[in-house]
Design a protein that fits this description.
extended, mainly alpha, single chain, 11 helices, about 65% helix
Length: about 325
């Protein structure tokens, strides 16, 4: 078909995309419109705004159910009402990426990570003492107070990674080398190089490994979460895919709730809001389990405890392995 035909509002006999015979406004094979012409600026803007509004509508509907109706979004998907909501995998990935971005760049104290350098060691390897506000002295400025807070946090980091007894790091280094050398000499040399780093460089390397690989490790644990549900609800008649759907929704909510908690500015009197978020995060999954799977409160609570125990163990091992992998590479 020549290009002139594309400028007319006339439906062709065959789809311009896949070549299938068409008779209506849309191709029954690929879904493309049968009348294709060069869009005007008005039509282009109308299509863009329409798509944005539709996506925004899906997002707000999904968020409303995910935040305030535990398990409802999963049930909607199982019952076939899916087009009106954001897809489960996209929802999970979006909230997990936002969580790790806020965790990395937000600078919140509860993250326990800091970009600042460690202080020089004092007596017996302890952090050097910071200046205190003597009675009668001028009150420190806000910038000075912030600096003192950072010093305290650097001291906490130094306390975390300092040797409890002389030579402890070398002992660990020797043990790790002996374990890795017979398996992979390259990994053994990488481990030696890591232990030889200064304390701050070790901290930065471990932090970089965490943010590079931990999100993938946690994501690949979702099938295990679904497997635990499958075992806990044997005889329920639900397929593995339904358990995986529940895993994506509940863990997506967890990332969203933790992101909201971390996003509350320091110093604001919003302790009650933080407390409510923490409580809701704690009770959300068992409530969702009852709505999706049914069952009594006591039995659901026991299943939730077992589920969380195995999930936390799995996540911890996966994250530790991911960080080690990142350090070795």
């Amino acid at each position: 078909m020549n290009t002139e035909a594309l400028d007319h509002h006339v439906a062709p006999a065959n789809c311009l995309n896949c070549g299938a015979a068409v008779s209506g406004h849309f191709c029954h094979e690929c879904g493309q419109e049968t009348v294709v012409h060069v869009a005007s600026t008005r039509e282009f803007m109308h299509e863009f705004i329409g798509h944005y509004v539709a996506l925004e509508g899906k997002l707000w509907k999904s968020l409303g159910l995910l935040l305030f109706r535990p398990g409802r979004l999963t049930l909607e998907y199982i019952k076939g009402r899916r087009v009106r909501y954001v897809q489960p995998l996209r929802l999970y990935l979006t909230f997990s990426l936002i969580f790790f971005a806020v965790m990395k760049y937000g600078g919140h104290d509860n993250v326990q990570l800091d970009e600042t350098k460690l202080p020089k060691a004092g007596v017996a390897g302890k952090p050097a003492a910071t200046a205190t506000h003597a009675p009668g002295a001028a009150k420190p400025k806000s910038a000075d107070v912030a600096g003192m807070v950072h010093e305290d946090r650097r001291g906490e980091i130094a306390e975390l990674i300092h040797e409890d007894k002389p030579g402890e790091t070398n002992d660990v280094k020797t043990w790790v080398h002996e374990q890795l050398a017979p398996i992979n000499s390259h990994a053994a040399h990488k481990a030696d190089a890591f232990f030889d780093m200064p304390s701050q460089e070790k901290w930065d390397t471990g932090k970089a490994a965490f943010f590079s690989y931990a999100p993938y490790a946690i994501f690949f644990m979702m099938p295990f979460f679904a497997l635990y549900l499958k075992v806990l609800y044997l005889g329920s008649g639900k397929r593995y895919g339904e358990h995986l759907l529940f895993a994506l929704h509940t863990n997506g909510f967890a990332f969203l709730a933790m992101t909201l908690a971390m996003s509350i500015p320091d110093g604001m009197h919003l302790g009650l809001l933080t407390f409510v978020l923490q409580v809701w995060l704690l009770i959300y999954t068992p409530i969702a389990m009852r709505h999706v799977y049914g069952g009594g409160r006591i039995l659901t609570g026991l299943r939730w405890i077992v589920l969380m125990m195995f999930h936390l163990i799995t996540i911890s091992l996966a994250v530790a392995a991911a960080v080690l992998f990142g350090i070795m590479h």
